[in-house]
């Protein structure tokens, strides 16, 4: 019986990413053919002066959510949490993508504006993704402490991955690394309080779904034809947070949440981009698959500095790696 359960779990770990990849590619093709509100609504100009589309984000989120709904052998609570995390984070992130002004940045900027009676799109997103985290965590269930930790993982994961979406492909690479670590640390053959079985751990099965959607569109992102934006980065980050919440024991979840909090706090003071540029292994990984940076003195800027319209510090900046319309922001959560 253990072997049967292991085979089924192994099949799900392959089927889920495959479904997500196919659904994301299909959604992207459909959205590009018939963009809601017209192509101009979703088009931004990047640091090279070239047009890019925000449609990658909704396509990735839709593909991942559909795969979570259809992948066989997922626990019902985990399935519902993944779908809720993807839908809620994508909806509020997409709202900020299309309606945000970029005048306020970071938690301090949006919450400071709110304290003075100004309701920014970023503040709405903070509340919306927080509520999404509460809903998804509630679906997973557990003791009050577990629910609180899981809220932080889901909402915090949504925000943190978005903070890395400042250069082509970076957020997808970070998601791949995070998903790989989750798969490696999730104990094989366990699922919450369920029976021990053979096969991959639940972290590998659950994290594979958002990764399948993101990696399927990585070529568009690295080629600077499209960008995840808040809708995509928030959704994939929230789903990875939900995967961690559904698969890791409490000590592991607390450790991951502490890391998310520490990195988020650091982003208010430190530029992740500058750290990456000054660390050779990280810089190599960051540039892997990307087009060469513009030469010094060119309109795109120098290799070591952001070009016009690009965000500098990840506190977080106005728009992501391709940006320049003020409506595209990378603000939390």
Give the spatial strand order of the biggest sheet: 1-2
Instruction: Give average pLDDT, whole number.
Output: 82
Number of strands: 2
Using the CA coordinates, give the radius of gyration: 19 Å
Q: Any idea what the shape is?
A: globular
* Unreliable runs: 189-198, 301-320, 322-333
How does the major sheet shape up? Answer: 2 strands, antiparallel
Count of domain modules: 1
Termini gap: 43 Å
Q: What order do the helices and strands follow?
A: HHEEHHHHHHHHHHHH
Approximate helicity band: 55-70%
SS content category? mainly alpha
Q: Supply the number of helical segments.
A: 14
Strand content: under 5%
Structure description:
It contains 14 helices and two strands. The chain starts with a helix and ends in a 46-residue tail after the last helix. The protein has helices spanning 2-33, 39-42, 56-70, 76-99, 106-115, 121-140, 144-163, 170-185, 202-216, 218-222, 229-247, 250-267, 272-278, 280-287; strands at residues 43-45, 51-53. The model is unreliable at 189-198, 301-320 and 322-333 (pLDDT under 50). It has 333 residues and is an all-alpha fold. It has a two-stranded antiparallel ribbon. The protein has one domain.
